[in-house]
């Protein structure tokens, strides 16, 4: 299969190339082969994309919500029809098993296009009656040109989670995918045009961090939505603040998952497996600090080890494979360096811990037990298949320890005690919490972080507030009284 796109960028409804941009190679993580060669955006490309988005915005916002929504829903249908081909592309872009990409990537992108397409017609302001017949009405307005900047773990999903609500509200978008996984967003742009989106409504340009930085500071841009790490989020948020731009920051995490003695152990082990090893551990909301109550610790570790040997590691295009490579050599080396730190700081390696001897960037699913709160592997985001299991005795103790982190993306609890479950989630300092499950992110539910994990929410009706603003109109039905 040929993964080379017609050109690097998609601007004003068509593919565009500028070979003066820095080389950008796309590597298939399962083999290390180069599968496409692109170019990072030059200043001329950045300018062209922003102008295109700026020029298209007023006419797009002037359509009725019903018309905009119809286009988004048509794009959703096309994505579902092409799910298999898009999943093959996503697997080559990211290395994630086809078993995952066929159910979690284009499908979740399609969900977002469908959901926000459905909402578009009902985005309104309100009428506020005042005394004496006066009243206020509010008009929900688009922000203008929005910039989306993506991480590499869910490229199609991120392109749609940002694009769909932005477009539903009447904004236009310039989206910059991660330089590691640049291919799928181009397909999203193509599909939107095919579905009837006017030229310039959704543009994609490639590039490294410097291209993202140029977009964030450009005066034509009204809003920036970033999915990435906390260090990048700090820089982007600060740069956006200088221009008083709206932001959504979807950043990293080191989320706790608490397993009480009364929990269903099989479910808790399943949650820990999904919350640490799905997508080879490259999921922002992963529950990488698994706190297990002392009485069930050995039983939990035993079942975890027994089940992990059933992970089918191999060619991600094989439909039976459930665990693929990491996205890049660099990311694999980062995870390996954390494994070394875990060993050096005295954590007990239960399973895994090694690179797998085959082409590509494969790392074994790895579990450390006897991890303590101050170990590096318990404090820093690894973004790889490395689980830390920590012991605890009481609810009070584990609550304090679970929240003792700068991050606040997600948190989960496994228990059969109903009141305790709700007490625990009430105490969690995290944006997205789970009771007796982990890592689900349906488009109907708000998703996002607190503390250093981010600002704003994606998905759900709340995302609309992050892609629109209210104009207040005061209407007087009375004479104007002036003191002189
Ligand atoms: P990253 O921060 O290195 O890069 C993210 C994006 O920002 C890339 O497109 C990159 O080119 C761009 N970028 C880098 N420097 C920039 C700058 N100065 N200005 C503007 N753009 C810049 O992150 P990554 O390694 O691609 O992704 C992994 C991180 O993303 C992890 O921390 C993970 O937790 C996080 N993540 C968060 C969510 C979420 O929804 N909260 C989802 C997925 C990933």
Describe it for me?
The chain is of the alpha/beta class. It has helices spanning 43-62, 65-81, 83-94, 98-104, 106-119, 155-168, 184-194, 209-217, 230-242, 265-277, 297-308, 329-344, 376-379, 395-403, 418-427, 462-466; strands spanning 9-11, 14-16, 23-28, 33-39, 127-129, 135-142, 145-149, 172-176, 202-204, 221-227, 246-250, 256-259, 289-293, 348-351, 366-369, 386-392, 410-414, 432-435, 454-455, 468-475. A seven-stranded mixed sheet has the order 14-15-16-13-12-17-18, sandwiched between helices. Strands 9-8-7-10-11-19 form a six-stranded mixed sheet, sandwiched between helices. It has a three-stranded antiparallel sheet with strand order 5-6-20. The longest helix is centred in the N-terminal third of the chain and has 20 residues, at 43-62. The structure holds nicotinamide-adenine-dinucleotide. The site of nicotinamide-adenine-dinucleotide has 29 residues, from helix 8 and helix 9.
Compact summary:
This protein is α/β, with parallel strands linked by helices. The chain has helices at 43-62, 65-81, 83-94, 98-104, 106-119, 155-168, 184-194, 209-217, 230-242, 265-277, 297-308, 329-344, 376-379, 395-403, 418-427, 462-466; strands at 9-11, 14-16, 23-28, 33-39, 127-129, 135-142, 145-149, 172-176, 202-204, 221-227, 246-250, 256-259, 289-293, 348-351, 366-369, 386-392, 410-414, 432-435, 454-455, 468-475.
